[in-house]
Amino acid sequence: MFSSTPFVLTFALFLTVPLLFLIAPQILPPKQVPLPPPNNELADLSLFSKATVASTPSQRSVHSRLGTHTNPKPKIAFLFLTNSDLTFSPLWEKFFNQKKNKHLFNIYIHADPSATITPPTGVFENKFIPEAMKTSRASPSLISAARRLIAKALLDDPLNLYFTLVSQHCIPIHSFDYVYNFLFHNTLNRNKRTKQPFSIFPNYQSFIEIISDDPNLLDRYNARGDNVMLPEVPFERFRVGSQFFTLNRKHALMVIKDKKYWKKFKLPCLNLDSCYPEEHYFPTLLSMEDPEGCTHYTLTNVNWTDSVDGHPHLYTPEEVSKELVYKLRESNSSYSYLFARKFTPDCLKPLMEIADDVIFRD
């Protein structure tokens, strides 16, 4: 009887191991991206609170916040979100250094502190925000990074009236003058005609892609679990869009003041294949709060025709040409794209070669 015991135990173990592989997925928790640590959240809340107070017109008069200028010019805040070197900084340097542009823009860089990044020079020098934290794909950390950039830009300069988010893989495909005039021309002319004083909240629209008919919309909506977005975000109000946008100051403030929707979008993803929080949060928030104030399209051209693993087409040096630049500018609407992505680092040389004669000649 006892001599058969080792055989029985061995046989039982042989049966148990396959069963564990079958039932483990039902017992163990699903793979998740961890939430940001509480101290990160507290630091962000403190930053957002300061930016909100500093940007609320009732706190101070508009004139005191804008200085003593009798005719101040609005600025564009360029927000660079990166986890690697700003390879195309020389091209952006040319973009920013065109005539009479010195006081019409500001630059802010959120660089993942866990990555080794070569400090850029020129107009990019000392533009890294110290509040930057680690970012990772398919997690709410990219939303947090964009919100930090917006908050720093709001806090830094009351003349920042547009906030343009780009990545290290983005390039400009028009001159700075073209971009500036495109964003501000209509409102500036209207103020001039009616002799209205400069307003901290002029009637600018935000350029953000907002899509309601994406074929994977339901999978994206349930990426954090079935119906966990309720009641704040019902499925019929859920939207998706491009990660990169240009927001007006009113909407920038709306983003950093939001707590209602953030508490849902910061939840960890259960289905990583359908979870791109940064492509969900901003379109949904602005669509729910001020759809008429948004154009519903982006100013950044991205080629998704041969995307791989959620990444768009990656342009190589062989593809760079004046014909490509002209094609990247084209859109299905009356506007022209102002920026484009995604380019390999070795595209810098051919891009610089056509910068003056093609890219910045509108």
TrEMBL record:
Keywords: Glycoprotein, Glycosyltransferase, Membrane, Signal, Transferase
A Pfam family of this chain: Branch
One GO cellular component, as annotated: membrane
Range of residues in the leader sequence: 1-22
Keyword Glycosyltransferase: yes
Compartment(s) of residence: Membrane
PANTHER family, per the entry: CORE-2/I-BRANCHING BETA-1,6-N-ACETYLGLUCOSAMINYLTRANSFERASE FAMILY PROTEIN-RELATED, CORE-2_I-BRANCHING BETA-1,6-N-ACETYLGLUCOSAMINYLTRANSFERASE FAMILY PROTEIN
Name of this chain's protein: Core-2/I-branching beta-1,6-N-acetylglucosaminyltransferase family protein
Species name: Quercus lobata
Lineage, broadest ranks: Eukaryota, Viridiplantae, Streptophyta, Embryophyta, Tracheophyta
